[in-house]
Amino acid sequence: MLFYDINKPNFMQGFLMSSIKRLLKKYGKNRLHLITFLKELQAEKGFIAEKEVQKLAEALGLSMTEIEGVITFYHFLTDKKPGKYVVYLNNSITSEMAGMEEVARSFEQEAGCRFGETSADGLITLLQTSCIGMNDQEPAALINDVVFTCLNQEKVKKIVAWMRQGKPVQEMVEEFGDGANRHELVRAMVKNNIRKAGPVVFGDFKPGEAIRKALDMAPEEVIEEVKKANLLGRGGAGFPTGLKWEFCRKEKNGEHYVICNADEGEPGTFKDRVILTERPQMVFEGMAIAGYAVGAKLGLLYLRHEYTYLKKYLEHVLQKMREEGILGQNIAGKGFDFDIEIKMGAGAYVCGEESALIESAEGKRGEPRDRPPFPVQKGYLNQPTTVNNVETLATATQIITHGAGWFRSMGTPVSAGTKVLSVSGDCEKPGIYEVEFGLTIKELLEMVEARDTLAVQVGGPSGNCISEAGFDRKICYSDLATGGSIIIFNKTRDLFAVVRNFLDFFIEESCGWCVPCRAGNVLLRKKFEKIAAGRGTLQDLKEIEAWGKIIKSTSRCGLGQTSPNPVLTTLANFRELYESRINKEADFIPEFDLKEAVAEACEITGRKFTEEHEHA
User: Fold this and answer.
1) Furthest C-alpha separation in the chain
2) How far is Cα of residue 428 from the mean position of the Cα atoms in its chain?
3) Model pTM?
């Protein structure tokens, strides 16, 4: 980031005008690029000033309220002036388990301020954020969009000392990860940790082979091959990919679009990050194949903000593909035109939901749309759009290359092929595993060398928390469906701390549009806290279960429809833990304990707690 003396009015006015003029010249007067405008303006001095909002609103024909609404919606956009160095420390459960609290205290001690504040000298701002896709190398943080992994007290002291010396953040990265993380356009300390490379996503791949083969087929034949392979969406929902493409192609009106959903914000999920790092051409080729199948000429890669460090590298890969004739105009000399743009997110878990992602790609708040119509009918710019996951598109490329029969020879009859899993938590070998569908939880635990396992969270917070009684269950769409997140907890862990972390995550990430999600999750957490504090009854257990089901059935989108799962699945699979915290004899126990509150107040004020206080 660059920082200027914005206290000089004449300088500020000239700077604002030149910056906005430059952006308008670069992108045009198009609100589709609003988030890009805002991110680039913020990158120049660390925040978006009110005058910039005003000038941008005038230029784009929008109200200031519309632009302010976008700024306040996204986690990584701000209208508040931060320090020169902005630290976003990941507060996901895997980070907590790896020692986040100790790292946080170290940052506060070295910076001289608490989280949520900026140091008195204006140098450092400390903030927390949700999962940044580094669960296998925690505690992790973003500092001015540069990733720092495996943090400890010693590293924090060194980093803050460098900040006080004015050292550029990128130069603080002393070691680089493996594979393309070492590329000159990446230079990240991030590690791939590919523990098991399977035959599909991490199998043999020759760039250009699949798209050339697809272009020798009719679009309908490409769709039929994907349907025969029974490729189910790898984002977690498991919708048949070929059917989605077919629905999109059958929509005859307007332009068609392909979107790759690379907004993997589910805590515990990081496999798309690794796929984009090591198999970007496979993903982009899958987008081109999808484009040919549905009749699209443009594809969008929606990349989450936390993966900003990969953007230049991915743009380099796209340009190389254009030069090689497997992207852009007249691909492979077959008369098919298709290109790809990268759209950046700005920090919002709900944008993993496809209609919210589309809203964000159009430069708006990432709020889910009502459905129907579905994106294949009215998606990006209200035109037919297929939205597919990173892993799904990479897999489609390999299906076209090797055939549906090859793909269906792996996995189970219902869940064909392989699944890339992100494994983190209490195991000796966290990382990426590409396995055939049908693997049991027990087999996976042996593979990753997990011991004394209490619980396995399958599918992230929105998924299912499995007890030892369920370790023989299989990872597949007919049993345990997952987008890829596997978090392991051993018998030293407090499951109530896990549930609390997940509930806080959903409350923070709710877009706030619908009451069941916005208010229901807060009420659910309050009821959970009452039970965790030992003030619950059997009636409270009945109510928390009933409330969770109401939130699931009445919320507008997938976030609210799965947000009660941390409570509901642990209550179902670990009921004895909940029952050990409640009073089974009492009909009702108030949430607020007056005696305890008065005693605490007396302790704070230095007054003596007496019998008079007790009976007050």
Assistant:
1) 91
2) 24
3) 0.93
